[in-house]
Amino acid sequence: MLKALKLYFSKPMTIVGIITALMFQIIFSVIWMTAYSGVTERSSNLKIAIVNEDQDVGKTIADELEGKLPFQIVTGLTAEEAQKRLNDREMQMVMEIPADFTARLTSPAEKAEIRYTINEANPMSIKSIMQGVEQNVTATINSQAAVQGTTAALVQANMPAAAAEQTAGALTEKVESQVTSIHPVAGMNNQMVPMMMVLATFVGSMIMGLNIQQSTMALGNQVGKWSKYGARVLINVGTALVVSFVGTVLINVLGGQMEQGFGLMWLYEGLLMLTFMFFTQMFLIVFGMPGMFFNITMLSIQLVSSGAMVPREMLNGFYQHIGAFLPATYAVNGIMSLQLGGPGAGHAAGVLALILLVCMGVALLATALKRKPAVAPAVVPKTT
């Protein structure tokens, strides 16, 4: 066994394997711990639109909420404008106070209503945060209404105890909430699809790129560098179309939502996979096998900065800015729109295509600058 151990450590790939395992721990620990540090404190970056159509009590409530809620409050929008921004994921929730709020609040026979709209085509934490806001706001307004109503009731002279108790009971819940979700998510499995697709596609592309690079090195001088590059392109395109089709079929068969249809989902997944393939292989073409360490770093950064797990608004500035230049961010946006509904995936697809062209261009330039390895002259045997 000692001999086998020495032989293993005499091979460079054994050392590379150990270093790779170590680098995974270092890279993921540093990136994830710095990216998620202070995330909960940055929930104040989330945006809520308040649309008030009542100029009496509703205006007072809207003004109080604007000053007290620990979020970015946007006012002055019409209901249609607010709903459009919510659909485009520029807002996390819309709160509407209808024009008859005061009238219903002061009527003994009716209850006032506040309407909340949440876009579920977002990271899962958005829904839970906004549902908590809805419950707290409604409870606070109910408490204020109860105090005001009870005070008014006590002013009345000679009110029978039974009537006073009934009146107080009615006043404690004078405001009720109506919560509407746009683009609802059918189960936790569908909520996790964007992260799953990004993780599976990037890791698959990264491992495929590693093996393609090893095959390229093994070919040596049997074919020219441009033939090798052309073969890479054909292999990548063919593999992206086939593998993305299989993945999309599996998601569909296993109950995945596809609001925009199977065809668009497949084509988008194919574009995403092709972009990831050239993105990961770019580092390998430029740096050789050490390029894998860049790919490991990119994997970790993109998982935290893409918005698949935590809203990008809650990340610190560094990860928000770097995420804007990485393909996984647009992968998540496009998948959410195609899978759950939303503003469409046209912009995200355009950015992915641009990143794809840039990666292909860098790889082309690196290939052009590479020198052809010198070929040792053939030894001619001497004749006697």
UniProtKB/TrEMBL annotation:
Record field: transmembrane: 12-35, 193-213, 233-254, 266-286, 322-342, 348-369
Compartments reported by the entry: Membrane
Domain ABC-2 type transporter transmembrane: start-end pairs: 18-369
Protein name in the entry: YhgE/Pip domain-containing protein
InterPro entries, sorted: ABC2_TM, T7SS_ABC-Transporter
Keywords: Membrane, Transmembrane, Transmembrane helix
Organism placement in taxonomy: Bacteria, Bacillati, Bacillota, Bacilli, Bacillales
Membrane topology, as annotated: Multi-pass membrane protein
